[in-house]
Amino acid sequence: MGCDGGTIPRRDELVRLKKKPEQKDKDAERQFRWKHCALTQLRLQQPIVMCRLGRLYSKQNVIEALLDKEKMTEACAHIKSLKDIKNLNLTANPAYDETKDDKSSPYICALIGLEMSGQFRFVALWTCGCVFSERALKEVKEKVCSVCQTPYSDDDIVILNGTEDEVEQMRVKMEARIAHARSEKKSKSDKKSKSTAATATITSTAAAESKSAPTATASSSTIVAESVDTANASAVDKNMLAPSTAKVSGEGSSKGNGSKQMVPNKRALISDKIGVDPVFKKSKDDYSVAKDPKASAVYKSIFTSHESEKDQKRAHWVTYNPFYN
After folding, report:
1. pTM higher than 0.70 for the full model?
2. CA 113, 118, 122, 128 torsion-angle sign
3. What integer pLDDT is reported at residue 49 of this predicted model?
């Protein structure tokens, strides 16, 4: 069966063994994650953005995915709008060589110059988007960005391209932050609705007061007018009573001081004032149309007091006389 000539076969040459699974090249995977978009797996292009989970994207690809939902993958489903991403302020590496792309990175830490290639942990601030190495950020004790002087908190620190455990921690923080933002928005809307209701109540009250003000003014003006009319009437009565009172007082003084003063008759006083009125004369009992010098003969002929009607033996067409029925 062969093996002539003194050859000695090995066991792995005679027995087939189970092949070992291929292992990923960790360095190649690390470089790919830091230089390619997590959405389209294409080369990162400026402007570069990050999400709350610390993944890197080309902003143009994210906008296209938001416009066309079919391009959005499940891993990026937490990106609902441009508010869920943040522009990164990256510091260019002056020593970057495109021909040696696998050995250098196009960006470095703004504080200590470490290359952002994945060999060192990098973080970004959500408030301003500045990127630093974690080592440099720990050395800064103040919670203020060293590049743009923007204050930040621990919740604003996002780990770029973290491990699976770190991604889960940031996912929990993201959900808590979203819930807090919704509660604040709801409280603001409630306050706004309450203020709107209060404003409407004040407006309605003011309108009711403005409506009641003219009514009160009209009533007050009516009262004033009535009081003026009453005062005028009282003044007229006094003027009318003054002459008669003077006459009565004069007669009383002539007869004697001991006699009682006569109370003037109001009807007589009024008749003295309006006695000259021709209409009032016609209302007296002793008035007759036949004796009125101003009435015409035709006008007098329609009444029974006319001479031509005294001997008439039939009922008059104007006045009803029961003796002729």
Report:
1. no
2. positive
3. 92
State residue 253's pLDDT score: 41
In this structure, which amino acid lies at residue 37?
A: C
Q: How far apart are CA 2 and CA 16, in angstroms?
A: 18
Give the span between the Cα atoms of 87 and 49, in whole angstroms. 4
pLDDT tens digits for range 236-257: 455 544 444 444 344 444 444 4
Tokens linked to 258: 């001991």
Most distant CA pair in the chain, distance: 190
Are residues 64 and 71 in contact, defined by beta-carbon separation less than 8 angstroms?
yes
In 3D space, the residue among 265, 264, 293 whose CA is nearest the CA of residue 281 turns out to be 293
Stronger pLDDT, 105 or 227, i.e. the higher one: 105
Strand partners of residue 56: 50
Give burial (CB, 10 Å; 0-12/13-18/19+) of 122: buried
Residue recorded with tokens 């069966």 = 1
| Token pair of 82 as six digits | 């441009």
No. of H helices and E strands in the chain?
A: 9, 8
Three-state DSSP at 141 gives coil
Across the chain, mean pLDDT equals 74
Q: Is 144 helix (H, G, I), strand (E, B) or coil?
A: strand
Return the beta strands (E) in the chain as ranges. 48-51, 56-58, 85-87, 91-92, 107-108, 122-125, 131-133, 157-159
Residues β-bridged to residue 122:
133
Per-residue DSSP letter, 42: S
C-alpha distances in Å from residue 104, one per residue of 92, 94, 119:
12, 11, 11
Of 173, 181, 141, nearest in space to 156 by CA: 173
**CB count, 10 Å around CB of 135?**
15
Does the structure show a pLDDT above 60 at 231? no
Question: Which two structure tokens, joined as six digits, stand for 22?
Answer: 């291929």
> Considering only CA atoms, which of 56, 40, 49 is closest in space to residue 118?
56
Q: What is the pLDDT of residue 280?
A: 57
Answer for the pair 132, 110: CB distance below 8 angstroms, yes or no.
yes
